[in-house]
Write a structure and sequence with these properties.
2 domains, 7 helices, 64% helix, mainly alpha
Length: 162
């Protein structure tokens, strides 16, 4: 679930002109090397390595955005939106096919749905480094946003995350 969230940030940042999130993925560890000689089985190991790296908070450089305030808003919104979309898909599957699912599978799908909703709500809290702080900053008038960013950078909860 967190992988989907971080991939949404990375993909939207890349689309906004910042190639940092996708280019910044570190494949230097031996089991994550992109070379075909390392993963000649079926390519699955490479895909899993890439997926694992996307589960970590992605680096974003808003100076690379074509429209910094608008793009920062979009990139920040895509994280919680991806959680909501995940919850919608898994919740719909549970609603329509839950009765025919194995009990363990239904419990897993229900858990994914609940966690996805929780992550979306949590990430909308406007305290740095959560997405809500970036969203609020993008919506504030420029001078207020600068002050808010300065305060959040200094006093925001776990300000070293992103």
């Amino acid at each position: 679930m967190h992988h989907i969230h971080e991939f949404a940030h990375a993909y939207s940042a890349d689309r906004a002109g910042d190639g940092t999130p996708l280019a910044g993925q570190d494949f230097t560890e031996p089991d994550r090397s992109p070379g075909p000689d390392r993963h000649d089985n079926d390519g699955g190991v490479l895909a899993l390595g890439f997926w694992d790296r996307l589960g970590r908070p992605v680096p974003i450089n808003p100076y690379n955005f074509r429209h910094p305030r608008w793009d920062n808003l979009r990139v920040s919104l895509w994280g919680p939106l991806s959680n909501i979309l995940t919850a919608a898909v898994t919740g719909t599957a549970l609603r329509f096919w839950g009765g025919s699912m194995n009990d363990n599978v239904a419990m897993f799908v229900g858990t994914v749905t609940a966690i996805s909703i929780g992550l979306a709500v949590f990430n909308l809290i406007p305290i740095a480094p959560l997405d809500g702080s970036h969203i609020l900053s993008s919506l504030l008038p420029y001078e207020q946003a600068k002050h808010y960013d300065r305060v959040m950078g200094q006093y925001g909860y776990l300000s070293s995350w992103r």
